[in-house]
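User: Fold both of these, please.

Assistant: Here is the first one.
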Amino acid sequence: MKLRLLNILQCPVCGSKFNLDLTNSSVIYASSSYAKKGLPELCRHLDICSYAQLNPIKGRDCKECMAIEVTKGLLQCMGCGRVYPITNGIPRLLPKRDPSISNEKVEEDVLAKLIKHFGIEWMEFREYHPEYLQEFLSWIYPLTLSDFRDNVVMDAGCGMGRHLCIVAHYADEVVGVDISQSIDVAKEICGERDNVHLIQADLCTLPLTRNVFDLIYSIGVIHHIPTPSKAIKEIVRALKNGGLFHMWVYGFENNVLMTKIIEPYIKKITTRLAPRELLWLSLFLASFLDIIARFSHIDFFKALLPNSEYLRSIAAFTLRHKQHIVFDLLYAPLAQYFTKDEACSLVKNAGLEIVSVSWRNKNSWRVLSRKRG
């Protein structure tokens, strides 16, 4: 954890700031381009200096602070006293839910399955495919890479960090948040970059202060959350006034195979398979998907194949990438499919104003919105 991240962290339960307990901790001093670049945005607009708290005699020393990486330690809430660990350089800010509250117990059970699933998925499928860049550009449309330039950005549900690697080239600072152990894969892939910060946390109890981010994006995550409206409200809280929120979610339209067959019936079987068994099954099914996708551009098959536009979009993907797609569709314990109106309502009800809504491959929705003010 880069020390300056402490400036924007808060307890996910009570919202108070943290004290950093460095007893039995590990701190390293890494070289940092910020020593030459100057004070980053995460510090520039805040009145609390983490380094000054740790070194009250020396006070603020930005050049040294920029090089501090806490690899192991404890974060103690100054309000409720709860303690959260920092391991592998990542703050683990997952609050325990109250099992005596029935709806929290149900939500906790679903979240436990999601944490297990996405941890397994991203530990297995950690390769970086060449097509990821174009896929990312398609997901974030109408945004472009220039929209990230010199901004403070959050990847809400970053997985193994494949998008963080792209955004880090443009953003001033980028924070990746994920609930699963995949955050450790993200650490391996891009955690050493000067401007990348990683947090293991639940988007529904986001441990970040108000009005921090210029732009937040969430690609393929909101539809896996039991209470998506709660997650979006938390995202809005962390967004600056006038800041942008972009999400990509599964669409209900043109997804009959998923909504009427796979979700209600097939997944009752596949979600109970051992991961290794499902890997073999997904490879087998991906082989057929690979063949079908390669014929999807032919006019004769366009009328016969469901979601032919989507199939054309993945035709050039490697077999391994297609296996990942199949595995994800068959293993995720929760997936919701939103109509256009439902997707728009999610952001409107959180107080955001819609900038644009667009269809992606005629089976999913991209919604770009702005926080008023």
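And the second sequence with its predicted structure:
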Amino acid sequence: MSDLISVADLGSNTFRMVTAREEGHGAIRLVDLRQKVVRLAEGVARSGEVSKEALRRAKECLGEFERALATLGEARRFCVLTAVGRMANNAGEVERLAREILGAQTLIPTGREEARLSYEGAVSLLSAKKENLLFLDIGGGSTEIVFSNGGEVIWEESVAAGIVTFWEQNRLGEKGKKDIAAQLALRAGEIAQLFPPPEKRLWEGGELVATAGTAMTLAALASKRDIAEGRSLSGTKVSIREAREWLARLSAMEKEEILALGAIEPGREELILGGIAILLALMERYGFDAFTASDGGLAEGLILRKFSEDGDYRPVWAR
């Protein structure tokens, strides 16, 4: 059995592949990490299907992943199809591409399973964590939320609201940039009402942890670093004031200006506005004035699970 595991998280906006090796005594070492904005969910909410163009982008990205894996040696390969797998009538086409191109075992988790895996992956990269945690993973087609106490998950939920579908429904920038931040905030506030009701007494004095593209982009912007630094951005704290300021600044910029900042991946320059608006609305709903970013997510969570199945130990990431 190979000591190398590779997991491709085929997200509704971003495809992200993490490859890791077990080094003994439960230590896991990151070998390779790569990601690309694919926008797999583009148009799915409207048509119920992954478009031909999105399938073309998916095939191209999976080919890039395969070429990278070919240089790493034999690995156990897994692909996880998230919200699109649960939403699209032709999700089987994406599964077929993953099997044919990567030779991977494909999985479509329930929303709650995705939430727990993402939570486990995110917190595994944080060295210092408070007793009470509220966790958010704002994806392209859904958003996962988890509350834990002392490392034990109390509840997890998945809400069918993500940045791709949100932006498709609210293409405010096409009608000019005047008041776009305020309009996005208003629409995001409506989305936030779909989430579990706030119970501040549960996580008072606790910490909000957020993963995925929006959180990591804000971490890069707030710390004036490049988004390519990914892993080292885990643990960065971003205040609600900083997030509001960046929403206002980015809303006034053209696409080229946004990309020139170096903190935003190509393909995310429009979607980031909706992502920040949703994150802000959820911070306000749950009473947090800051969040801690983590670069870990579903792929890391599944890697931990797979390695833990190999032995009677609890694997941890090598520092």
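The mean pLDDT is 89.
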